[in-house]
Amino acid sequence: MSLFTMVHVAANSMATQRSKSATIAHNLENVNTPGYSRQRAHLRSVTSGRQIGGSLVGDGARVAYVTQVRDQFTEAQIPKYQAESGYGTGLSHVLKAVSIFDPNEPGNVVEAVSDYFQNLRELAQNPGDTALRTTVVGAGKQFAAAFNLAWESLEEHRNAIDHTVNLEMNRVNQLSGRVANLNQQIKNALDAGVYPNDLMDERLIARDELSELTGATAYNSGDGTLNMAFPNGQTLVNGLEAATFETLPDPSNDGHLSIRYYKTDGSGPYDLPQGAMQGRLGGYLEARDGVIAEAQSELDALAFDIGTQINNIHFYAAGKDAATHNLFFDNVGVMVNSAYPESAGTKGVDITNVDHSSINIAQQDTLTLDGVSLTLDWSTLTGAEQAVVLGDYSVTPMTAADQTNMAAAVKRIINDAVTAHNTANPTATIDPAEVTMGTDGMLTINSTATGSASSFDITFGGNNSVMAQLLVNNAATGAVDVSNSSTDTLSDSLIANAVTAVTTEFNAKGAAAAIAMNLDLDENNDLIATADFANVTDEDLDGILDSTPNGDASALFSMLDVQNLDLSNVGNTANGGLNDMITSFGVEVNAAEALLYSADLSLNHLKSLRESISGVSIDEELVELEASQRAYQGIAKVITTSDQMMDTLMRIK
Amino acid sequence: MRISDKMIFDSSVIRNSNHRSRMEKAMAETSTGRRVVHPWDDPVAAGRIAYHNNNEKQWEGVINSAERAASELQTADDVLGNIQNVLTRAYELSVQLANDTYNPEDREAGAIELATLQEEVFYYLNTSVGGRYIFGGIEDNKPPFDNAGNFEGSAIQRRSEIAPGLTTESSINASKYFTAAGGGVDAYTILTDLNTSMLASDKAGIQTGIGGLKDLITQVSNARADAGTQQNFFDIAIETGMFLRDQENNRSASLSDADIIDAASRLQMAERALEASLTASVKSFRLTLLDKI
Description:
heterodimer, A: 653 residues, alpha+beta, 4-stranded antiparallel sheet, 15 helices, B: 293 residues, mainly alpha, CATH 1.20.1330.10, 2 domains, two-stranded antiparallel ribbon, 7 helices, 4 strands
């Protein structure tokens, strides 16, 4: 080997040591870069074809390749725990933001329920006292407001989750697109025989974030690309293509966002099945549609049950001066109370100022008139008749013309049935009906022959049938006015059936949000019913019941019993229901916390292992750097020595 | 195990954060005195705290209600005592004036006093407390007796709670003890007839009236016994209610209150642990080849 060759080889080897130092420098520079895996420059000695003494002589060192230091066994386990940790984080993070179930939170539902009954109890000590009546109104308002606020607070959390899900789904689209894009770059590099270490780090970071967000699992394909899929098998990234996601309001879920996706081949959109999304987003969705929605349902059940039970008593009890038939709470139901069949008031109902648009004309009612059963086919209402019968009069009450047309439409349908009956039974005909609407807005059905039907009954075709709706004055409250007047044309049981036919439409959903104090009671607290209606007397003997013994607290005691009553939707007493609600919410949060703790334990351990293998140790890198520097110095010495040898040679004369 | 620099920093963050979290919890317990603030602090306890708080309030309400009823019954008993005194005076006056030593003028003068005593009796019977007539049953709108001694109140008695969902009568039925409706004598009739007999100097009539007065006084004694019995019910209810209310309070407190000594010692331990952890972190940060080479 010539001296020149020696210098040349030494120069190449110095470059190799410089490359190694550059790799070490890259490691040191990325000591704090998340997801960075330390790299190692692998050196190899270079062998030339030259022989000395029968042996091949080496030609210094070169960098064979620079690789990442990664443990695939550890890396393969991380996405699973990343997903579990994400799920637990999402769920517990959202649930822990809910404060309405804090047992000592002032003004919460627990306190409002307790205070409400407490105020009723105080009023029971002096039912005629105006000041106590005022406090009961206040407690009733507070009761309703506490439920409204609690429900709305939960709804706000659900809306905030929607907002978060919407943003995070954009992130999912970005990340899955990024993984597909990196797949492309990595594949190209590998095809060119280059190790794209930093690109692989970047893809791993995107993979981990996607797993944490969505619960997606990842698997390597043979060509260097990374595929990802949801736990239910739905593909998220397939080679160089990524699925895309969008969110849109779901009417079947109170307008909260649902997730749709376009497959990696571009087809779609398809609904993402419930439960497919895991990870942090899955935790958010479980909080929104599971735990929080369940808490709302429990609040609804409690508000509905207490409100309805109170209404059922209050509606049929007497306030001052025989005031009766007032709801205590609006927007929850009231059922006909068989214990008070003779409740006072005017039988029949005012239908002139309510919304009839929910009437279902497909339901056929059966009217028994003078002993003949007639089927009333409301589907034959003409367009003009439907406009009247199905009108919304809640804002603008019926005009006189509307009332005439309403009566005419009902009369036409009944008399069509009468005509059909008479045609089929010529020897047993009945007289047509007369239908009128009085100034009180009551619909009256009579026989034209006698002025009143000898027998009269209606079987309602089903919920929201025309007759059922026309016989209750407001589907929103289910209130009905029943009297014992001798001029009645509708029986109590008939009214009861009408109410039942409509009130079966009531359910607890949304009751906590909607429940409100009947403002009539606020304007005139004499309307607060405290007395048993049976104790109401006719003071001036005019036939009208008009005097309530104001010391009678019978109805209040019945209302107080509601506090300890087993409520049907709640499945417990009010107090027991509140206890269950708080406990189950706490248990849900704890379960999420436990899952998070357990997942984090495994995840932190795996991440620690990852760091142990792939992380940069400054100490280690400095030693490597020192070694590289020494080698560099050693090789430089070779050049110096070669130069001196050359110099010696040149001086030989 | 190989230790990278990031591991040193990460584990330091996790360790210190855990210690801080424990310290924060112990500090919150020590400063607020509460162990359960959120449902997840102890789900079962959180639910039970609300449950016991509700029960405590319920018992508090029952106690208030029973105390008020007992107080009204005490008033009724006092008033009945006054009526008894008045009737005793009427009795003494009648016995005195039934004697032959008194002449019609004396009896006429006695009739004037008797009329005043009669007015007093019905004045007492129309006593109202807090706007409610204590002998009117559930009728609060008008006095129980009109000027002619007719009972205008309600025979249905007021009721008050002695336990949640359990009520008992909390007023005296004046129609039973002061009218013939209860099977006894009618106070107004007895006193009016006696007065008429006095004015007419009708000794036989006065003697009959004395018998009626005796019965009436007995009826008042019975009414007082009734009031006493009812009051006794409420006294027991108050005592029981207080016991149960305190129990509910104790249960709630035992679930929600922090053990301050325990919390303070945990705070101390957490503080020490954090201090040690921070010291260890600083040491591990400093021990590097960077400072040696």
